[in-house]
Amino acid sequence: MERTHAWQNAFHRLARCYERRATVVNAFFDLADTIITVRSLIRRAWTTHR
Fold it and tell me: DSSP assignment, residue 10?
């Protein structure tokens, strides 16, 4: 869990919350988690299926 928070901190938009609506903030977190997951899958596929 702590590693996930560290990865999310790389997204500076999430470090400072400028949005007023919680749905927008949750959407940004979901987008960041999706990007983190896709990057991990690409990295794993690149090293495995080379």
Answer: T
Which positions ≥6 away from 25 have C-beta within 8 Å? 17, 19
Contacts of 12-18 with C-beta under 8 Å, sequence gap 24+, read none
State the Cα angle at 45 between 47 and 42, rounded to 5°. 110
- Give CA–CA dist 32/24, Å, rounded: 12
Predicted TM-score (pTM) of the model is 0.66
Residue whose token pair is 């596929």: 45
Q: Mean of the pLDDT values across residues 12-39?
A: 81
